[in-house]
């Protein structure tokens, strides 16, 4: 399945959960000022599923009023590009054992706003890339949460920022790696 929401004023509004790949393969594209709104968001929900969501272009938004999971039991990819914006409460990248999640926030004006914590590698494998002026914000950040989890975060390029308003744990019970490169900032 593939869904594309494109152009200023174009909206896709859900009163419940949006799954991008629940049992099979799913793709979500939010482009050129399109807006998607829902409660819970899952990219790669159940085992064996694959999901990819791309939010790109000025004014493009994916608004989750609750949690966002990038690789819940399956494999999930989130791309935030070219001034796209994603918002949610808390987020897990690589939630469950055997899951894989990867999120990339790239380009000046691109934002991923977590009003609560961000977990990169909860029980599975999680990767976060913040590049070329992208910005990720959250309260507490975890990189490698549970035992056997693996988390890796790379923040690179001038203007790229990972803002943790609370604690930051690199290797909480699992394995965590943090790379800060080429003029980027982690706070």
What does the model show?
With 187 residues, the chain is mostly beta strands. It is 0% helix and 56% strand. It contains no helices and 23 strands. It has strands at 2-6, 11-13, 18-20, 25-31, 35-38, 41-43, 50-56, 61-64, 68-70, 75-81, 85-88, 91-93, 100-106, 111-114, 118-120, 125-131, 135-138, 141-143, 150-156, 161-164, 168-170, 175-181, 185-186. The strands form 3 sheets. It has an 8-stranded parallel sheet, with no helix packed on it. It has an 8-stranded parallel sheet with strand order 2-5-8-11-14-17-20-23, with no helix packed on it. The termini are far apart. The model has no long low-confidence stretch (mean pLDDT 98).
Structural class: mainly beta
Uncertain stretches of 5 or more adjacent residues = none
- Please, what is the average pLDDT? 98
Order of helices and strands: EEEEEEEEEEEEEEEEEEEEEEE
The counted number of beta strands is 23
Q: Biggest sheet: strands, sense, closure? A: 8 strands, parallel
What gross morphology would you assign? Answer: globular
Strand content: over 45%
Percentage of residues assigned to helices: under 10%
**H/I helix tally:** 0
Radius of gyration computed on alpha carbons: 15 Å
Strand order in space, largest sheet: 1-4-7-10-13-16-19-22
First and last CA, distance: 38 Å
Quick structural overview:
The protein has 187 residues and is an all-beta fold. It has no helices and 23 strands.
Keywords:
single chain; 187 residues; mainly beta; 8-stranded parallel sheet
List the helices and strands and how they pair.
Layout: E1 2-6, E2 11-13, E3 18-20, E4 25-31, E5 35-38, E6 41-43, E7 50-56, E8 61-64, E9 68-70, E10 75-81, E11 85-88, E12 91-93, E13 100-106, E14 111-114, E15 118-120, E16 125-131, E17 135-138, E18 141-143, E19 150-156, E20 161-164, E21 168-170, E22 175-181, E23 185-186
Parallel strand pairs: 1-4, 2-5, 3-6, 4-7, 5-8, 6-9, 7-10, 8-11, 9-12, 10-13, 11-14, 12-15, 13-16, 14-17, 15-18, 16-19, 17-20, 18-21, 19-22, 20-23
